[in-house]
Write a structure and sequence with these properties.
83 residues; mainly alpha; DUF3885 domain-containing protein; single chain; 2 domains
Length: 83
C-alpha cells in the first residue's frame, strides 16, 4: 500500500473509530461484528508441519475468496511482542 492510501486509511479509521484500539478491545466493543477464523483444527494457532501449513494456507485462501475483493478488502492485524 502506498503512503497516500495508508494516510487515507488512517484518517478513515480515526474518523470512524477514534483512537486505535487493540484487537482485544475491538472484540469487546464490537461483538456484533467480531469474527475469528481458526487456522487449524482444535484452535491450534501455528503449524508444526508442512501438511499443517497447507491446511492454514487453504483455509486463508477460502476465507479471502468468500469475502470477495470487488470493493477492496483491508485486513487489520494486531501483534504483540512482550517480555
Amino acid at each position: 500500500m502506498d503512503q497516500k492510501r495508508l494516510d487515507a486509511l488512517t484518517a478513515l479509521w480515526s474518523d470512524r473509530w477514534g483512537g486505535a484500539p487493540s484487537a482485544y478491545e475491538l472484540k469487546e466493543r464490537f461483538r456484533d461484528r467480531w469474527v475469528r477464523f481458526h487456522s487449524l483444527p482444535g484452535s491450534k494457532r501455528y503449524p508444526d508441519t508442512e501438511e499443517q501449513l497447507g491446511v492454514v494456507l487453504g483455509r486463508h485462501h477460502t476465507i479471502l475468496q468468500e469475502l470477495g475483493t470487488a470493493e477492496g478488502l483491508y485486513v487489520i492485524a494486531d501483534s504483540y511482542h512482550g517480555a
